[in-house]
Each structure stands twice: as structure tokens, then as C-alpha cells.
Amino acid sequence: MSRAQQQDALSRTALAVFRLNGQFLAVSERLAEPAGLTAAWWQVLGAVLPEPLPVSGIARVMGITRQSVQRIADLLVAQGLAAYEPNPAHRRAKLLAPTPEGRAAVRRIDPGHAELAARMMRELGGQEAFDETVRVLERLSRALDAIEADAPA
To answer: What are the residue boundaries of the HTH marR-type domain, all occurrences included (predicted)?
Structure first.
């Protein structure tokens, strides 16, 4: 593959991912709105449903800045959808945890989320194709992580 072809492939990949990001944000806003959430609030709550995390941990999982997550976390706490808890591993970095109200809000999204997942699976041609799509996207993300880790500071 020529250098020009490689650059074209990278450009097409980036444009596709940027478009996907916009599409996912738009559909997430539509799904989250009836539950009284925004897509960003849903993302942050979703990150802490399995276990409470510090803001920096949420930012790492989501691939966004700590400051962005901090702003959303503070809004979730102010709305009673999440709470800060002590962090036994770090006195100053509190853990963010969903409240029962936050968990209930996310549960209200579940029917629309399930329907979208089923429709996506059908559009992609079945569960195997859906799983392969996820594997390719995760591989792309790991490749970019490796490239960034090698980049000079």
C-alpha cells in the first residue's frame, strides 16, 4: 500500500469515526431526554453503575478530560443523581457513585436502548457481524492508545 493510500485510509477512518461520534451523540440525546438526562450525564452515570470511580478514572474510561467529567459529576450530584463517597485509596479524590435516583433514571433509558441495540444488530446483519464491528472499533482504539503511548511528550 502506498503512502498516499495509507493517508487516505487514515483520513477516511477519522471522518467515519467523527461522523459516528456525532450520530451516537444525537441518538444518545434522544434516548436520554425522556429520563431527564443528557447524553453526557448518561455516559458518566453509566461509567459508575458497576462501581464507584474517581473522576480521573471516569475520564480515562471515557477518553475525555478530567475537567469535563468533573463538571458533569458536579451537576449530577447537584441534581441528586450521584453522590461523592470517600475513597479509601486516595483521601482527596472522592469516588462518584450513582444514587438510587440516578440508577432509576438510567433504567428508564433501557427500553429505548434495547430497541436501538436490536435494530442495530439487524442493520449490521446479525449478532456475529455486530460483535465483529465492536472488535474492529476496540482494535482501532487500542492501536491509537499504543501510538499515543509512543508519542513524545
So the answer is: 7-142
Place of cell 449490521: 124
Residues 88 and 52 sit within 8 Å (Cβ to Cβ): no
Provide the grid cell at 73. Answer: 459529576
**Beta bridge mates, 83:** 97
The three cell numbers locating residue 34: 425522556
Does the pLDDT at position 153 exceed 80? no
Say if residue 50's pLDDT is above 90: yes
Structural domain contains residue 131: yes
Q: Classify residue 18: in a domain, yes or no.
A: no
Strand partners, 84: 96
First to last CA, the chain: 30
Domain assignment present for residue 17? The answer is: no
How many domains does the structure of the chain reveal? 1
> pTM value?
0.86
